[in-house]
Specification:
Keywords: Iron, Iron-sulfur, Lyase, Metal-binding. This protein has twelve helices and 14 strands. It is α/β, with parallel strands linked by helices and 413 residues long. It folds into two domains: 81 residues, no CATH class; 285 residues, TIM Barrel (Alpha-Beta Barrel), CATH 3.20.20. A seven-stranded mixed beta sheet has the order 6-7-10-11-12-13-14, covered by helices on one side. Strands 3-2-1-4 form a four-stranded antiparallel beta sheet, with no helix packed on it. Helix 3 runs parallel beside helix 5 and helix 9 runs parallel beside helix 12. 35% of the residues are buried.
């Protein structure tokens, strides 16, 4: 394999010369004459190859990168396969980051919260559809494999949160935890950043809601259950399908669907209001499973349910298409055709009115299926959006004791 940049091309009546410069890997010149039976125009693009334990099959470049690179087969791929060369294992790297702020505010009319908190940037769960992938472009990294293998932990998140909640200008309102990237992803098991953030929230009676695919949230039930009893916490577990094989390719390092169902049951039995988020609904992949997911979650103790149609902003679109080609080549065109049917003919439409649920006939049919199943199962009978803000405690940050001042003239003696 090689990464090539097209350098130059020249043409005359006798032959055509294509010269490629390939990032310190090789130089190759292809000459095509008029008598040739075949006209070689360019190297074929290598098909995407899934990596074990990873969602993205490519490391697509971010939209802010100046140089564009393309992977091609330079003729050595077959040799490597014959000789048994194994590709290097892509290991997850955790980087410490000292953030400047920790609370993110938004005013989007289609989002039910105004403040969110994410202790991590990037997510090892590797969900191919994750709408947060493009944020890695701001770091000069790829929204593809980099997003799920190069994780940034905001190690000062608890201290920043303490400072923010202590400000006299802070107006208490519910906080959404782990909306962009999962707050209980694998790195949290050792770093315990989210645990410390939750402790700060509990100490100040600051209500919050959390969404996760991880069973690690059960570790913090000793804090979450008392907060839920005071009306200060609720949870949502994302389950897109009950098919373990599809989930393994779709969300490779998240808990299995059956394990997430057990988490719903555990949280519910602890007295924590818990719902299920079927996000996203992917046509012909997870969409046929929607009713079964709702039934299983209702039986496990979920009281609420919601869904979001597949969203493909920025670099997520090419990443998802590569994933489809690698895992579901038989239905890739059909999936994208249905996505465009629900997006006004485009891969994605960021219109606030339609970006969550889609538009058109197929979006309406999906909406009808969801609401019919919800009514049949008795879900969404309680208002899930009310958290009690009346007990919020503003704790002043502790100040270090200042040494007693001594009259400067005493130093003369």
């Amino acid at each position: 394999m090689a990464v090539c940049d097209v350098k130059s091309g020249s043409t005359n009546s006798v032959n055509t010369v294509y010269l490629y410069r390939c990032s310190a890997l090789f130089f190759a010149t292809s000459i095509v004459t008029d008598s040739d039976l075949y006209s070689i125009q360019e190297f074929p693009i290598a098909p995407p190859t899934p990596k074990k334990g990873r969602g993205a099959v490519t490391n697509v470049q971010g939209r802010y990168e100046v140089d564009q690179r393309e992977v091609v087969d330079d003729g050595w791929l077959h040799v490597a396969e014959v000789e048994g060369d194994e590709p290097k294992v892509l290991r997850t790297q955790i980087f410490e980051e000292r953030a400047k702020t920790i609370l993110t505010r938004n005013s989007s009319p289609d989002i039910p919260f105004g403040v969110s908190l994410n202790p991590y940037r990037g997510c090892e769960h590797g969900c191919i559809y994750c709408f947060a992938r493009p944020t890695h472009s701001y770091l000069g990294l790829s929204p593809g494999l980099d997003f799920e293998s190069r994780i940034y932990a905001k190690i000062n998140a608890p201290e920043l949160l303490e400072r923010e909640l202590s400000k006299k200008s802070y107006v208490p309102e519910p906080i959404a935890l782990g909306v962009n990237t999962d707050a209980w992803q694998p790195a949290e098991r050792d770093l315990r950043l989210t645990r410390r953030v939750v402790e700060v929230l509990a100490e100040r009676n600051q209500p919050f809601a959390a969404i996760t695919k991880s069973s690690l949230i059960e570790r913090d039930i000793d804090i979450l259950a008392p907060m839920a009893a005071r009306g200060q916490f609720m949870a949502a577990i994302t389950i897109t399908t009950l098919d373990a094989e599809i989930a393994r390719t779709l969300e490779p390092r998240a808990a299995t669907p059956s394990r997430r169902l057990r988490t719903i049951r555990t949280l519910s039995e602890a007295g924590i209001p818990v719902g299920v988020s079927i996000a996203p609904v992917i046509p012909f992949v997870t969409e046929p499973d929607m009713e079964r997911v709702l039934e299983a979650c209702a039986e496990a103790g979920a009281s609420n349910a919601s869904y979001i149609v597949l969203r493909l902003p920025w670099e997520v679109a090419p990443l998802f298409k590569d994933w489809l080609s690698a895992h579901f080549p038989d239905r890739a065109d059909r999936v994208m055709s249905r996505v465009r049917d629900m997006r006004g003919g485009k891969d994605y439409d960021s219109n606030f009115a339609t970006r969550m649920k889609g538009e058109g006939l197929w979006a309406d049919l999906l909406r009808q299926r969801f609401h019919k199943a919800v009514r049949r199962l008795g879900l969404n009978r309680r208002d899930r959006g009310i958290l009690d803000m009346s007990h919020f405690r503003r704790i002043e940050p502790q100040k270090a004791e200042e040494p007693a001042r001594v009259n400067s003239q005493m130093n003369l003696f």
